[in-house]
Design a protein that fits this description.
The chain is 16% helix and 21% strand. It is of the alpha/beta class.
């Protein structure tokens, strides 16, 4: 963990304000601030070692540092509590309205005590938290859910075709452009040509050539009355 560097102190004095009791054997480095609010008290016992830049502030109660306690540089003690005998608190540690047991070692850069104000657990906040914790639903096909098939609300019999399938089956296929070009249109059946006999032929020749006689005159009727 990266700890911020403490700036050098140009003031070598120790600032003390309020009801503060310091034992003569306590060692206090330059730049230390010890302040007790009204109706509050700070007690520093014998053999206490306080590093430079440490701030001890009693607020809404008493703050006691027992014998043999070592406070690293830049430690912040705020509020009320007790630091047990021979405890060691690392540099840049904040203790807010908390106590430290005797002979306890606190790593540098630690935070002890209340970490912030409490927020009431409203129904809206609980609903948002529940929605965030709820796993996302997955869509499963009906045939794979629990290993069994699920019947639909309106099943269609297997032997009958749906109206859409019947319409598709009855619709004749539309020939493509290539098939239309390749297959010629069907020709109408030839009209029957009448077959004319000899009499009709002579009559036609007489009409066309009135001045010529028929090539094959009709036979005379031998049966005379």
């Amino acid at each position: 963990m990266h700890l911020p560097l403490l700036p050098p102190f140009s003031n070598s004095q120790v600032y003390v304000q309020g009801d503060v009791s310091i034992d003569e054997s306590a060692a206090i480095a330059p730049g230390v601030i010890i302040q007790a609010d009204p109706d509050c008290k700070i007690i520093i016992a014998a053999g206490v070692c306080i590093g430079m830049g440490t701030i001890i502030h009693a607020h809404k109660g008493n703050l006691e540092v027992e014998a043999g306690v070592i406070l690293g540089a830049g430690v912040l003690l705020v509020g009320t509590g007790k630091i047990g005998a021979n405890a060691c608190i690392g540099a840049a540690t904040t203790v807010f309205n908390a106590s430290v047991e005797s002979c306890q070692v606190v790593p540098p850069g630690s935070l002890l005590g209340a970490k912030g104000r409490q927020i009431a657990d409203t129904p809206q906040a609980r609903t948002s938290e529940d929605a965030a914790n709820q796993p996302e639903s997955e869509d499963f096909p009906p045939e794979s859910l629990n290993g069994q098939g699920i019947a639909t609300s309106d099943p269609t019999p297997s032997g009958e075709d749906t109206p859409e399938e019947s319409a598709i089956a009855t619709t004749p296929p539309t020939p493509s452009g290539e098939d239309t070009q390749e297959e010629p249109a069907p020709k109408p059946p030839p009209i029957g040509v009448p077959v004319y006999g000899q009499a009709n032929l002579n009559r036609l020749l007489l009409t066309l050539f009135p001045h010529h006689k028929s090539a094959n005159p009709p036979p005379e009727d031998n049966h005379s009355e």
